[in-house]
Amino acid sequence: MTALFRRVDETGRRGVRLVVDGYEVTALEGDTVLTALLTNGSRLRRNEFDGKPRAGFCLMGACQECWVWTESGEELRACSTDVRDGMRLVTKEVPWLTR
Amino acid sequence: MNDFARDPVRADVIVVGGGFMGAATAFFLRTHGLSVILLERDLIGQAASGTNFGNVRRQGRYLPQLPLAHRSRDIWGRLPELIGEDVEFLPSGHLLVTTRSDDGARLEQYAVDCKAWGLDLTMMTGDQARAMFPMVGPEIHTVSYSPHDGHANPRLAAPAFGRAARRAGAHVVEQAPVLSITKDSTDFIAETADGRVYRAPMLQVSSGAWGRKMAALFGEDVPMAPQGPQMGVTEPMPYRVAPVIGSASSVTDEGVYLRQVKRGNIVFGGGRRSTADLETKRARLDPMNTLRQMPQLARLLPAIARLRVIRTWSGVEGYVQDSLPIMGPSERVSGLFYAFGFCGHGFQLGPGVGATMAELIATGHTDIPLEPFRVGRFQRNAANAAAYSPHA
Amino acid sequence: MADPVIVVGAGPAGTRAAQRLVQAGLRPVVVDENERQGGQIYRRQSENFSRPAEKLYGAEAARARALHTDFEALRPHIDYRPGTMVWGVAEEGLLTVRDRAVATLPFSAIIIASGATDRIMPVPGWTLPGVYSLGASQIALKAQACAVGGAPVFMGTGPLLYLVAWQYLRAGVKPAAVLDTNSLATRLRGLRGMMTRARVLAHGVRYMAELIRAGVPLHTGITPARIEGREDGVTAIVWQDARGRLRRTACDAVATGFGLRAETQLADLLKCDFVFDRRFTQWRPRVDPDGRASRANVYLAGDGVLLRGADAAETAGRLAACALLQDRALPVGTDEIADLRGILATMDRFAEGIASAFPWPAHMAAALPDDTVVCRCENVTAGDIRHAATALDSPEINRAKALTRPGMGRCQGRMCGLAAAEILAAARGVPVEQVGRIRTAAPLKPLPLDCTVTP
Question: What's the CA gap between A10 and B325, in Å, rounded?
Answer without folding.
Answer: 69
